[in-house]
Amino acid sequence: MPGLNLTRAEAGQRAELLTVTSYDVTLDLTKGATVFGSTTVVKFSAAEGSSSFIDAITETVHSVTLNGTELDPAVVSDGVRIQLPGLAAENELKVVADAPYMNTGEGLHRFVDPVDNEAYLYTQFEVPDSRRMFAVFEQPDLKAAFTFTVTAPSHWDLISNSPTPVPLETTPGDDGGARSVWHFAPLPASLPTSPP
């Protein structure tokens, strides 16, 4: 298994092979106290026939679909990277995973306030921590537009560096609690790889 960090040589090789068009990230913050659901759809071009990888620090990878073909998560994912063999000229990758909440300030930090017993989450994505929240080509020369959709308890407030949309109430969760969905406007590629 490779280390957690991308090497300069790996970044250079990946930048030569890939051009990333867009990320569509869906997060489910109603799965409990230890993990959250993370679904990412990435569109990118590549040198046809090449192989690469996407960064994703995960608890569990449920599915990996590359250009309509299911890849075995047990084979292509090691919990840090997901291998992408046999790329086409134009690609669509879908990764469905659970990612761990952190309490170190990395990735998606979760804290339960002992006074009100409410959970509070935040992220500021110090480099290279977006991969702790969703599958991403985590390097500054592979930027792309982002769209975020977040499911969270209805009584929560979601605050972002982009305008906060009006949440839409959805079906109750497994625990019977009210849930809402926030669909954030796309963020342009000129911003660093950080979510709302």
Summarize the structure.
By secondary structure, the protein is mostly beta strands. Helix content is 7%, strand content 39%.
Order of SSEs = HEEEEEHEEEEEEE
- How would you write the strand order of the largest sheet? 5-4-7-2-1-10-12-11
Largest sheet: 8 strands, mixed
CATH superfamily heading: tricorn interacting facor f3 domain
Q: Total domains, how many? A: 1
- CATH C-level: Mainly Beta
CATH fold name, please?
Immunoglobulin-like
Second CATH tier, the architecture = Sandwich
- CA(first)-CA(last) distance: 31 Å
Shape label: globular
The percent range for strand residues is 35-45%
The total count of helices amounts to 2
Low-confidence stretches: 192-196
State the helical fraction.
under 10%
The structural class is mainly beta
Mean pLDDT: 91
* Whole-angstrom Rg: 17 Å
Walk me through the structure:
The chain is mainly beta and 196 residues long. It has a single domain (8-183), classed as tricorn interacting facor f3 domain (Immunoglobulin-like, Sandwich). The chain is built from two helices and twelve strands. An eight-stranded mixed sheet has the order 5-4-7-2-1-10-12-11. The chain has a two-stranded antiparallel sheet with strand order 3-6. The two termini are 31 Å apart. Residues 192-196 have low confidence and may be disordered.
